[in-house]
Amino acid sequence: MSEPQIHISATKWDPTDYDRTARFVSDLGEPVLRLLGPKAGERILDLGCGDGPLTKRIAESGADVVGVDPSAEFVWAAKALGLDARVMAAEELNFRAEFDAVFSNAALHWVRGQDEMLDGVHKALKPGGRFVAEFGGKGNVERVRAALVTALARRGIDALPLDPWYFPANPEYRARLEWHGFRVADIRLIDRPTVLPRSLGDWLGTFAQSFLAPLGEEERAEVKAEVERDLAPILRNKDGVWSVDYVRLRFAATRPL
Ligand SMILES: C[S@@+](CC[C@H](N)C(=O)[O-])C[C@H]1O[C@@H](n2cnc3c(N)ncnc32)[C@H](O)[C@@H]1O
To answer: Are residues 134 and 29 in contact, defined by beta-carbon separation less than 8 angstroms?
Structure first.
């Protein structure tokens, strides 16, 4: 059997910065948590658990929850909430028919090895177990991505190899889930324009590190300012509040009995 491919990400997650610029990510996880419907006594895996607020919500339902995430910094933050959190990428799952459900919020679009991951999730679930997740879908942050591509092109840099995100369309991901043996109960794309708590430049500093990686500090600041300038007319309101064009792909699937 070939070894799973683990892709080292250029993104460094800093729990303090994330709490200031990105707390909305877990705050907006409520609908997918409802779709999961965790029950007391269930064993649940939270894939890409981050610093753990949704993992904690699952634990509060009385379920026995394990969070996994490749960021050691986030796993420490999750452990500090009293959670069972482990440093592990989605491509490395090694559980066998152990979980009643696998849950994930805002993480799957960061996973480069989608097929290794889906294989690992299928094996991790008990027969009849459910896989409920939400992540970036086709069109997600399209305007921001386009402005980044343009700003890098102005400097002679091809953004394609720097792009860390996979934002699939609904039929494409349904087919991928089915190919891995899942039965898909529901899958839908949801437009969710999202108000940012801080500036778009701060958002770029948290989420678009990979695009900015080839640049020096000064040029990074220039690119952030340029993207802000290009997008202000469409994404910033008269009070200076930014709203980004998020699109989510939300699904509920099962490992058949
Ligand atoms: C935006 S955060 C979301 C965290 C959390 N699920 C939440 O809702 O707050 C994205 C998470 O995906 C994780 N991630 C990135 N690549 C991953 C991979 N290959 N496998 C699993 N998680 C990954 C990151 O480490 C990060 O914690």
So the answer is: yes
> 103 by DSSP, 3-state: which?
strand
For residue range 106-161, list pLDDT tens digits in order: 999 999 999 999 999 999 999 999 999 999 999 999 999 999 999 999 999 999 99
Longest dimension (CA), the chain: 57
Q: Residue 56 carries which side chain, given as an amino acid letter? A: K
Residue 144 and residue 41: Cα distance in Å, rounded?
Answer: 42
- Tens of pLDDT, residue by residue over 218-249, are 999 999 999 999 999 999 999 999 999 999 99
Is ligand 1 within 6 A of the CB of residue 89?
Answer: yes
**44 domain residue, yes or no:** yes
* Cβ of residue 147 lying under 6 Å from some atom of ligand 1: no
Secondary structure class of 189 (helix, strand, coil) = strand
Distance 40 CA to ligand 1 centre (A): 25
Is residue 218 situated within a structural domain?
A: no
In a domain, 229, yes or no: no
Residue 187 within a domain? yes
| Residue 100 belongs to domain spanning | 15-141+165-196+246-254
CATH number at residue 184: 3.40.50.150
Distance 105 CA to ligand 1 centre (A): 8
- Report the candidate in 84, 148, 93, 81 with the shortest Cα–Cα distance to residue 118: 93
Contact 148, 229 (CB under 8 A): no
Instruction: Tell me the pLDDT tens digit for each residue of 23-62.
Output: 988 889 999 999 999 999 999 999 999 999 999 999 999 9
Q: How many domains does the chain have?
A: 1
